[in-house]
């Protein structure tokens, strides 16, 4: 219940600040969820802080590469061949 209240509080703050665009809202929600994920992993003490920072940067790089590959695939699919 406490975690859901946290998320709802964050969402209401976003609306109060005037973030109406769906893109802005999704970006903010993703950053909120990533920060909560990072917080939980750090509390579990699976890794040290230094290792955690390195691993999180690696994951970010992998996510960026994955998004780039998806965009390339979409562009290839959208281009129609002319005969």
Plain-language structure description:
The chain has 83 residues and is an all-alpha fold. It folds into two domains: 1-46, no CATH class; 48-83. It has helices at 2-17, 22-44, 49-78. It is flat, with a radius of gyration of 18 Å.
Short précis:
The protein has helices at 2-17, 22-44, 49-78. It is mainly α.
Q: What order do the helices and strands come in, and which of them pair?
A:
Layout: H1 2-17, H2 22-44, H3 49-78
Helix pairs in contact: 1-2
Count of spatially separate domains: 2
Instruction: Specify the biggest β-sheet.
Output: none
Number of strands: 0
Q: Could you give the distance between the termini?
A: 60 Å
Q: Tell me the strand percentage band.
A: under 5%
Residue share in helices?
over 70%
Secondary-structure-derived class: mainly alpha
Radius of gyration equals 18 Å
The oligomeric status of these chains comes to single chain
Global mean pLDDT = 77
Which short descriptors sum up this protein?
83 residues, mainly alpha, 3 helices, 83% helix
């Amino acid at each position: 219940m406490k975690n859901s209240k946290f998320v709802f509080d964050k969402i209401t703050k976003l609306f109060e600040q005037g973030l109406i665009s769906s893109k802005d809202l999704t970006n903010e929600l993703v950053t909120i969820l990533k920060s909560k994920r990072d917080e939980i992993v750090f509390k579990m003490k699976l890794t040290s802080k230094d290792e955690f920072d390195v691993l999180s940067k690696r994951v970010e790089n992998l996510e960026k590469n994955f998004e780039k590959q998806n965009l390339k695939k979409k562009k290839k699919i959208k281009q129609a061949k002319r005969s």
